Amino acid sequence: MEKTNGYSTTYALAFEQPVIELDKQIASLHERQNAAEYAEELASLQANRDSLLAKLYRDLSPWDVVKVARHPDRPQTWDYINLMCRDFRELHGDRHFGDDPAIVTGFGRIGPHKVMIVGHQKGRSTQQKIDCHWGCAHPEGYRKALHKMTLAAKFGLPVVTFIDTPGAYPGLKAEERGQAEAIALNLREMSRLPTPVVAVVIGEGGSGGALGIGVADRVAMLEYAWYSVISPEGCAAILWKEANEQNNTAAAQALALTARDNLRNNLVDDVIVEPVGAAHRNPKLASDNLQNWIVEQIRDLKRFKPQTLVQRRYEKLRRIGAHSSGA
Amino acid sequence: MTQVSTRSWGDSPEDAPPGKKAVPEGLWIRCPACSGILFRRSVENNLWVCPECQHHFRVSGEQRVKQLADPGSFEPMNADMAPMDPLNFIDLQPYKERIAAAQKKTGQNDGVQTGRAFIKGRRVILACMDFTFLGGSMGSVIGEKITLAIEAAGENNLPLVIVSASGGARMMESGFSLMQMAKTTAALARFDDQGGLFISVLTDPTTGGVTASFAMLGDVILAEPKALIGFAGPRVIQQTIRQELPEGFQRAEFLQDCGFIDRVIARSELRSEISSIIDYAGK
Ligand SMILES: [Zn+2]
Questions:
Q1: Does domain A66-318 have CATH number 3.90.226.10?
Q2: Does the interface ipTM go beyond 0.90?
Q3: Mutate to test the interface with A, among B12, B179, B206 (most CBs of A within 10 A)
Q4: For a designed S-S bond to A267, which of B45, B140, B175, B247 qualifies (C-beta 3.0 to 4.6 A apart)?
Q5: What is the tens place of the pLDDT at every residue in A204-253?
Q6: pTM for the whole structure
Q7: What is the CA(B243)–ligand 1 centre distance, in A?
Q8: How much distance in Å is there from the Cα of A170 to the middle of ligand 1?
Q9: Rounded Cα–Cα distance for residues B244 and A86 (Å)
């Protein structure tokens, strides 16, 4: 499923409009009987279009990045599993209450490594989206994740997590079943999981719901993912008193939520480059980049004894913060 | 589209402008629960609990320390540590100004007091959060001071008591605040490995990133009567499910019924409850 042309995406973001116009021109030239005669024009149009697309994505505002991260065609956990995993064996259920499809877990092979995959799933079809609550997991999702990660550690398998959630589900049942406790427990147990853990924010990194599968030895973000304590709209509604386009833009900027912002602040370790025009334009290439990063990190982390890993993980978390010394 | 996130300061009307709902000024005060007109001194002498209806008023970190620790026993740690505004965050008001105003109002550098103390003669490491400081929101300072308190408890083999009161992670430090959840819980993992005793006391309100990190990880979790405790704020939940929330939802008694806290304890009983648990754990 190669998607290399702009017009093959079904959903255009507002800032992409100039590219969409060029795509239409290119498409109409292609459709002509005598298209061959326009080879030169086509090549030049295509070059213009490609450089325009690259330029647009180079200069995205943080709020535009959030929109790209939410693009309906953006690859999700299941897409990456299908693109990069051989022999994926899904494992269901939290052994307490149920099976939350908003977090997918299972054994898989990534490159040379046997791993446990844990990832948020937003859903593609309307029914999937409803089942997955648009990627907002319930406590049983976080408990399923912890159960499978513990299983992985028992057999020395590295854990790979894909983060893609607007946040943990804020509902009646989620509270009744202990959303806060489920996330808190994951944070504590992931910090001492005696096996390599790598995490990648592949789309949305919404707050505690993201961090709930995000405590790791190495954390990366895809180039157009976002990761923050709160969504721009949530922040705008509270601090700017109203969520609207203008305030969301300001909040997205203030929250320093882009991959490069988080890298600059040492809150993540790496940024994984996406194809020109973002992952949804070329999921295979995005998946290859993601896979290369994962394979390399796991190879590196396997050098350490489990106790050393846990020690280093703690030291890394321990350094995070911006405060005066105040002894 | 549903907007969701770890609940942050200011997310519900109940924690809007800190100070308005904190302990009121004046000789006479009105109890928000029973509407009784109360002589201020009599409420103060009753640990800020309404003598008529047992409503637990919110108290500051300073008052909490006074109520819990044996008189004169509290020795603060890292009291000078202050916030830094790493993102140069400006919304309708610069974060730096918000910090300065909160510091002036509370006389504290940030929203938690940590230190060594005795509770009924038992040595403990005590941390008391202060809801009056930017809604008790957790940024780098609270995360660091809590972590240092956990480490101090581990190093000295002392019981750890954290009294939480917080609207969640502090938005103005964004990712730095979020990662304090990971840092504090990682410290608790080590403390747990060391066999440490952690008594978590939840007070009104304890929500968002504080509930979803250290507050819910106590070996024993206590809560004050009717304290609001949850992950998401009631308003966010209401917007999501579009129906009225049941009476008592997310209150301490509800959490006990759901199985997430050990005991609901009246403020007047907290000291004896804590000291008894310390004795049972042999710490
Ligand atoms: Zn009363």
A1: yes
A2: yes
A3: B179
A4: B175
A5: 999 999 999 999 999 999 999 999 999 999 999 999 999 999 999 999 99
A6: 0.94
A7: 29
A8: 31
A9: 47
